[in-house]
């Protein structure tokens, strides 16, 4: 299957990195910024001079542009994307909006995260009720190259945008804080980063692969009256969970305010 990718920003380029790691190079790439197209070319992908050129050569199109330019991008490729699969990564741009812009295309929404670059994303996929099964299969298979895929309804995709889509930034933010704390008690930064990232990786495996609950992991580590319990008591006194919940709610409100 031949792909086109329109928009080679952070997420678009991360998708290309993942496809490259998976050995899938049959992708025509366009971005208005030629330097980004040159980066894609360096990975082995085909550079194009226009979005139309990229789409005309493809069976399926990944539209990875900001919500503000979705309409313009669709106008440029509408008449050469007839009966083709259009996969949009744009946050807050609904299926109904995409269908109104691309009435003769099969539209699907996805929400991956930047871990696609390491083929470790969790990608949420939403589709119209009347989407043909073979179209969905094609979209799912593309993103299975880049990690796990969950097919969900559109409302859940939007809610998950501020969890799995934004999630790598939250985890990096927490890791940054853990490294800073480690340095404050005398560890060098390089060792602190290695300890923090490997510990996060191990904890994730306990939750995702070993099937432990978050409470089971906490109870397995935090002995009553011990060091970990004291640290968690301090975090609770600082209302960390409440602050985190509020942060996610504010991000979701922002998404709803720009939805089109």
From TrEMBL:
Entry keyword set: Amino-acid biosynthesis, Cytoplasm, NADP, Oxidoreductase, Proline biosynthesis
Entry keyword annotation includes Cytoplasm: yes
Record localization: Cytoplasm
Cited InterPro entries: 6-PGluconate_DH-like_C_sf, NAD(P)-bd_dom_sf, P5C_Rdtase_cat_N, P5CR_dimer, Pyrroline-COOH_reductase
Domain annotation Pyrroline-5-carboxylate reductase catalytic N-terminal: ranges: 2-91
GO MF term set: pyrroline-5-carboxylate reductase activity
GO BP terms, alphabetized: L-proline biosynthetic process
Record's catalysed reaction(s): L-proline + NADP(+) = (S)-1-pyrroline-5-carboxylate + NADPH + 2 H(+); L-proline + NAD(+) = (S)-1-pyrroline-5-carboxylate + NADH + 2 H(+)
Pathway: Amino-acid biosynthesis; L-proline biosynthesis; L-proline from L-glutamate 5-semialdehyde: step 1/1
EC code(s) of this entry: 1.5.1.2
Residue positions binding NADP(+): 6-11
Pyrroline-5-carboxylate reductase dimerisation domain location: 154-254
Top-tier EC class: oxidoreductase
GO CC list: cytoplasm
Biological function: Catalyzes the reduction of 1-pyrroline-5-carboxylate (PCA) to L-proline.
Family, per entry: Belongs to the pyrroline-5-carboxylate reductase family.
Name assigned to this protein: Pyrroline-5-carboxylate reductase
Species name: Thermoproteota archaeon
Gene that specifies this protein: proC
């Amino acid at each position: 299957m031949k792909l086109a990718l329109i928009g080679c920003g952070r997420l678009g380029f991360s998708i290309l990195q993942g496809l490259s790691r998976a050995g899938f190079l049959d992708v025509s790439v366009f971005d208005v910024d030629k330097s980004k197209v040159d980066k894609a070319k360096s990975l082995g992908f085909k550079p194009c001079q226009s979005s139309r050129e990229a789409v005309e050569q493809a069976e399926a199109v990944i539209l990875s542009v900001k919500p503000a330019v979705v309409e313009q991008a669709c106008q440029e490729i509408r008449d050469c994307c007839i009966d083709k699969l259009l996969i949009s990564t744009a946050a807050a741009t609904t299926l109904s909006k995409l269908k109104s812009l691309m009435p003769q295309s099969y539209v699907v929404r996805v929400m991956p995260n930047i871990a696609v670059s390491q083929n470790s994303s969790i990608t949420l996929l939403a589709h119209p009720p009347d989407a043909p099964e073979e179209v969905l299969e094609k979209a799912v298979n593309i993103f299975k190259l880049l990690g796990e895929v969950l097919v969900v309804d559109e409302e859940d995709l939007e809610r998950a945008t501020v969890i799995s889509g934004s999630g790598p930034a939250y985890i990096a933010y927490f890791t940054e804080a853990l490294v800073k704390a480690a340095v404050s008690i005398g560890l060098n930064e390089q060792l602190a980063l290695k300890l923090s990232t490997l510990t996060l990786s191990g904890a994730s495996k306990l939750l995702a692969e070993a099937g432990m609950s978050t409470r089971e992991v906490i109870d397995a580590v935090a002995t009553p009256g011990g060091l970990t319990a004291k640290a968690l008591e301090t975090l609770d006194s600082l209302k960390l969970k409440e602050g985190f919940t509020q942060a996610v709610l504010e991000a979701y409100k922002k998404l709803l305010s720009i939805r089109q």
